[in-house]
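tool_log.txt
---
The assistant was asked to compare two proteins side by side. It first ran the structure predictor on the initial sequence, then on the second. Raw inputs and outputs are pasted verbatim so the downstream comparison step can read them without reformatting.
(1)
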Amino acid sequence: MGDHPSKRAAGRIANELTDQIFEPPLRTELLRDEIFCQIIKQLTDNRNRLSEERGWELMWLVTGCFAPSTNLLKEVMHFLGSRRNQIAHDCVQRLQKTLRNGTRKYPPHQVEVEAIQHKTTQILHKVYFPDDSDEAFEVESSTRAKDFCLNIANKLGLKSHEGFSLFVKISDKVISVPEGDFFFDFVRHLIDWIRKARATRDGPTPQFTYQVFFMKKLWTNLIPGKDMNADLIFHYHQELPKLLRGYHKCSREEAVRLAALIYRVKFGEDKTGLVNLVKMLRELIPADLTKAQSPDDWKRGILSQYNADAGMTQDNAKIEFLKVIYLWPTFGSAFFEVKQTTDSSYPEILLIAINKNGVNLIHPQTKDILATHPFTKISNWSSGNTYFHMTIGNLLRGSKLLCETSLVSNQLMDPF
């Protein structure tokens, strides 16, 4: 707490020492009152200014982690209320929120520790969106993912936060934050997990940085044009890469229509880029269709459609794009390629699409849907780092599908 400086403290990250203080009481409830008593003791008649500052930092952190017992709560509130400094007032508010929202699972995250060490009680967190924009949002120790999502949705003017999720990108992983988790608990747990995994494999581990994304995860009850902001910021930009990768079954006529809209979204009424349209085909046409006709034929078709849409705004072009692909059975899917070895009637390489209809098995070349298994018919689902296993129908006599893939995650099924 500042009274006994550690010789190794200078080389440590901010939360290493606080972990030693908070981990035991988070595991053992009986120790929580002891922590409050020790901090209050440090803050009472302490003539060492630095020691007192450290004590208030700890009080700020502990009131955001857990509350004292009912027997001690009145005394803690009285102590905090008798102090005239701003941090004591902040601690009262934090403690009230902790009483409302519950106890954290993990010690304070590094961001929280560094914030109070720099005398900042407001933590602003940058969040990235699919349209390449970003914005800073306040995150508190008691903020759960659901609250965070609601704050973002309100600030962006979305009609609902339903179906949206926070995603944390760290190292080579992008993982959805469960809506009931405290935000900092989840990030803390994720970083610790990756750090331990890398340490055993590669020796000493560097400090990990992470980014937070807010995206559409569950594509149900969605009608293009109903929520303009959601369409413009999220739906268009999340669906465009799936089209260009060739995941959907798309006719040449539809591809031309969509390409003209994509160009209009990029450039509006600016026709100067049309000269280089052939060089841009990869940015406009699904990958599996680029060779379906000559580049010049594609160019002629796109030009004709683009001119027919004269006067359409870039925002309206996004909506029209969504209205076309919204009609497809694979709209709003999470896609991944797999290698399956259990059913000889299917190709060895399959494209899997998970959406509101269930799990769709798709032919990788024709993009025909070979089978759709509603979630009500899937009796078992499990996955590892390189595989997933699915049982359709009765657990004992149902059909099984075992697939190898590097992209699958149990989280794909969680929302359903």
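(2)
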Amino acid sequence: MELEQRVAELERRLTALERRDPESPRLGDGDFWALEGLKQQLADAGGAGADGGVLYTGSVRLPTGEQYGWQYGAFTEALFDGDWADAAESFAALGHPVRLRLLREILGGLRTAAELAALDGAGTTGQIYHHLRQLTGAGWLHAAGRGRYEVPPARVVPLLVVLTAARP
């Protein structure tokens, strides 16, 4: 291969790499492999899927080594028929920077109120317990006994989905 051809090939490959978003995985066939799979599922559902639907899914390994996989789908009609106000408490619980930090730290392995209270800027023990109660009441945490807290397995991927959706 001549130098000119090699440079042209390197430029082509560099351009392709620069176009890729390094934050999003490239899995399956094509850029919209998950969307195409959802469309097929909706078509197979017949009339129930006529107005479309949404799907979220994830397979994650936490810094602790714990692994979680989850998926959930809903038909558009069912989402519009439901009372969106029912989600307000869940969203409100996530609407405080300290609570988001506590969730991140809990997913990272700090599980007790004492460990969380030792974090710089997290607040007093009383404030920590207030935030933990808010997160527990909304279902983002549950008490695992002896002052330990954890994100329920069925909430790990949904939490990460919400964080992903909130990115600018």
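---
observation on (2): The two ends are 44 Å apart (CA to CA). The CA atoms of residues 96 and 131 lie 9 Å apart.
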